[in-house]
Amino acid sequence: MLSAVHLAILVELGTHATKYDNKLSKNCSSDPIQVFANHSSYLDASVQCSNDGGRLASIHNAFTNALIQDLAEKADTMVWLGLRCPDENAKNCRWDDGQGAPDQYSAFYPGYPSGIAECVFMMIDGAPSGKWVTGDCNNMLIGFVCEVEAKASCGDYDHYGDYCYKGYNQTLPQIDAESQCQNECGHLVSIHSVDENQMILDRYTGNVNFVRVGLQTNGKMFAWSDNTTFDYNNIGYSSSTIGECIALSAIDDVVSRGEWMSVSCTQQLPFICKREGDCFKSTTPEVTTPVTLAPLTCSSPYSMDQNGTFYSPGFPNSYHNSKACYYILTVEQEKVVQLHFAYLQLSQSSSIGLFNSITDSTPFMNITTSVSSSQYFTSTSNVMKMIFVAGSDGDGINRWEANFSPKENVITTSPMVTITPSPTNPSGCNQNSVAPINITSPNYPRNYPALMQCRYQLTTDSKHRQVRDMVTMGDQGKSYSGYV
């Protein structure tokens, strides 16, 4: 845990920024808390904080809450916090800093979280001032609080930008190299710019051919082992038949020097680790969250099984390519697909079509505007096809985060019907019937004549099979006791 924390409140105050000098404690840096002029949605606020090297603020004690309340009141704006709540149970809320639910400290106003809106902000007026409520993540434009962690020294790592790096000439397979980096509070390196790529390349001149990095692929999507966004692409050659891991080439070979190419994950290669600040070991084991694969392009359908979270290309940045993106979501047989959007922003003429199967050509739902995160869409089969098309509005915003999971397929059946002879068919023979149904012999429970022939056509829908239980039948020429 890094010791020093700075806060910056960003709010709209006309056309200028107002600065407030304040220290969180006597141990903190003297950097001021700054008030900036830009109201934003929750997602835009999160992006701005990330661009400034931080994140939306978390509050774990009354002192920090009071500090943010004081500055927000001076700036006369409500502010987004780094907290999201998927429902009305506060124990299910999660801080952006990975500290889990707000169990240690909470300042929710009575009745919140509401379960209707998901993103949390702080009120500033009247009795609710300093209290937390939930609001519309996409459509509310208010101030926000950024938390920027002060970077500690890099120890035996080399400092570059906001991160620390260390190269190893020792050769290891992917899983062992990642484990080595995690033991030193980092991950295999992720690369997010031309400059960062060049800095890494400059470390390896003439002594190695390829350097292992933290990028992996399933053939369709790519993900960094540190869970950062795949926002810089320098792949010169990619082939899942060669391997699912990626290395940086330090020579002109299959690809040019500095480009990336596919390698086997078991191949022994030098590697480089990346981390934030020095490494202070904690007695609490780190919980590793699953890697989220960020789509590289929309050149082919993305297939996902059972459940998961997926994003628009380049999320949280806006996507404007007019090429349609296809997603195939599959759950186990006898269940259906349930989907909802944690975030959804679509510009004019953009759309998301949801289809009941992979072969359907007509969507059961065509989404062209924002929908509530509490609204769920359900297919009628175990496969849902989703097609995302970004509109031609270059200034509009197109980005979303979607979650899908299996749901029990509840089939509503009609009550059982018993067929009895009608005036137009007094014998009760020659019936066309659709399940579920009971049929009886003519004149049941009385006997019916020998050698009488009756035809019954029994039908059920395509999802079911017929089960017939015929009981108490007699022989030809004798008296029949009937059947049910």
From TrEMBL:
Disulfides per UniProt: C298-C325
C-type lectin domain location: 41-138, 160-274
Gene3D superfamilies attached to this UniProt entry: Mannose-Binding Protein A, subunit A, Spermadhesin, CUB domain
Pfam families xref list: CUB, Lectin_C
PROSITE patterns: C_TYPE_LECTIN_2, CUB
Coiled coil: none
CDD domains given in the database record: CLECT (cd00037), CUB (cd00041)
Alphabetic keyword roster: Disulfide bond
Domain CUB: 298-407
Protein known as: Uncharacterized protein
Organism (species): Cylicocyclus nassatus (Nematode worm)
